[in-house]
Design goal:
468 residues; alpha/beta; TIM Barrel; Immunoglobulin-like; 2 domains; 11 helices; disordered N terminus
């Protein structure tokens, strides 16, 4: 790619982000074990965006999350089919004791848990044999009773869970995944709205039960896959008319008045690693979302064109561009992951997204996306996250910045102090003049970056610490 093309690409990125940033501002059932609701108090953590997902949360993993100063942890999840395998057999909480231990460990570490609820038991399945699929119309009230008991039980001590996400990537059709898949699968390719309106029917029954159990509990719409931009057909959008159906699942939810029955929209978005591209390029040039800002910002733009509901980015990260797990991904990939950590969280802060979840923190992550190895040793991405949460502690996002030479960044302020986080749009190094009040510079994992004279080279995401 020649220099002119790179600058044109970066100009498109800036335009997309400026447009997006301009749009931001907008009881029935078994007696529960814990009858008393204890309000949740989490010191300052609700004010940060930083979160991770884990496949389990032992005490050691909880400590790693706490040491990284994250606020959020996402756990997949609580299976309805485990707790209520038979319709009239009561709730078998002993079947989920391991998961309950995870919740306790998270609460002890003062982590705000997003708990996924999924898996329809056989007696309630609308699609026979499909645990990930929808619930029969006549059994929706039973699921509401179950959710009432779930919230009464888990929003209290010692679990302290307030965020309940209903299924994971429900905008996948049941015929595309195994019956017991952790993904989906409320999607219905025979319906114009891909089944979104029926998902809204479930929300209408469940939401009042959740709020009755605890008015502070939050209902999170299941994390949306949104595999392409459905607003058009062609380059940068969905590839065909038929491909537009699945991402319109959310439109079906909203058209059936579903917005009155959930508190947050959850969505997923990852770029893939390419040796010839920076992670930023990989994100904004994602083939099915590049027309509107990329696989993250484009999805934000689409969702905010539909509703002003607040957003949670519940799965993000940089993944290897092979389907197979690579035992020893190269150092350059690990370095790129560390760089992308800085971009993902800083940019999402600028987009006013409440929470961003890196998928996953522990081994083995999706396509090598993990931050810890099998022995729980930190990888560069974990060090990057830890340094970022420490550096930005008590700082507030202020504005986007254009430091020069085609770079782009974000400014954070605390009193008279400022932090600029500056990015090159591609893999090329760029030189900028030192801003007024320059004190020091650091790379993504906290190593010192030394200026030369009155300028500094930006080759990786760079923190510039500024005084008066």
């Amino acid at each position: 790619m020649n220099q002119k093309s790179k600058l044109t690409l970066w100009g498109i990125l800036l335009t997309c982000f400026m447009v997006i940033l301009g749009n931001v501002y907008f009881a029935r059932g078994q007696t529960p074990q814990y009858e008393l609701y204890l309000p949740l108090v989490i010191k300052d953590r609700g004010q940060t965006i930083f979160g991770v997902e884990v496949s389990d949360i032992s005490e050691a993993i909880a400590n790693r999350a706490q040491d990284a100063n994250v606020t959020w942890i996402r756990i997949n999840g609580l299976l309805w089919s485990d707790v209520q395998p038979t319709e009239n057999g009561g709730y078998q909480w002993q079947n989920v004791s391991k998961m309950e231990g995870y919740l306790i460990n998270a609460a002890r570490s003062k982590l705000q848990t997003i708990l996924i609820i999924r898996s329809t038991p056989t007696w309630a399945q609308k699609v026979e044999g499909s645990y990930c699929g929808p619930i029969k119309q006549e059994k929706l009230s039973e699921f509401a009773h179950f959710m009432y008991q779930v919230v009464k039980r888990y929003s209290a001590y010692p679990y302290n869970v307030l965020y309940y996400e209903l299924w994971n990537e429900p905008d996948i059709a049941h015929n595309l995944v195994p019956n017991d898949s952790i993904f989906g699968c409320w999607g219905d390719n025979n319906r114009p709205d891909y089944g979104g309106s029926y998902y809204a029917e479930m929300l209408k029954v469940v939401y009042p039960a959740v709020k009755e159990a605890n008015p502070n509990a939050q209902v999170v719409l299941g994390g949306l896959l949104l595999d392409c931009d459905p607003r058009n057909v062609g380059p940068g959008y969905c590839s065909s008319e038929s491909a537009r159906r699945a991402p319109r699942f959310i439109e079906g939810v909203l058209q059936n008045n579903g917005a009155n029955y959930f508190d947050f929209i959850s969505f997923h978005g990852y770029p893939q690693y390419y040796a010839s591209y920076s992670p930023i390029q990989a994100e904004i040039e994602f083939p099915t979302w590049r027309a509107s800002g990329g696989v993250v910002a484009g999805k934000v733009d689409y969702l905010r064109s539909l509703t002003n509901k607040p957003l949670l980015h519940t799965e993000g990260g940089l993944i290897y561009n092979k389907n197979d797990y690579i035992i020893d991904p190269n150092d350059e990939f690990q370095r790129a992951k560390a760089d992308y950590v800085v971009w993902l969280y800083a940019r999402n802060i600028s987009l006013n997204i409440k929470s961003t979840i890196w998928f996953t923190m522990n081994w083995s992550g999706f396509r090598n996306g993990e931050m810890l190895d099998k022995q729980l040793n930190p990888l560069p991405a974990y060090h990057s996250l830890s340094f970022m949460t420490e550096a930005l502690n008590d700082y507030k996002y202020n504005q986007t910045i254009l430091p020069g030479s085609g770079t782009y960044g974000f400014e954070f302020v605390k009193g008279n102090s400022k932090i600029w986080i500056v990015f090159s749009p591609d893999k090329d190094s760029r030189t900028i003049s030192l801003p007024s009040g320059f004190i020091s510079a650091r790379d993504p994992i906290g190593n010192t970056v030394s200026p030369s004279g009155g300028s500094i080279i930006i080759s990786r995401p760079t923190y510039l610490f500024l005084g008066q």
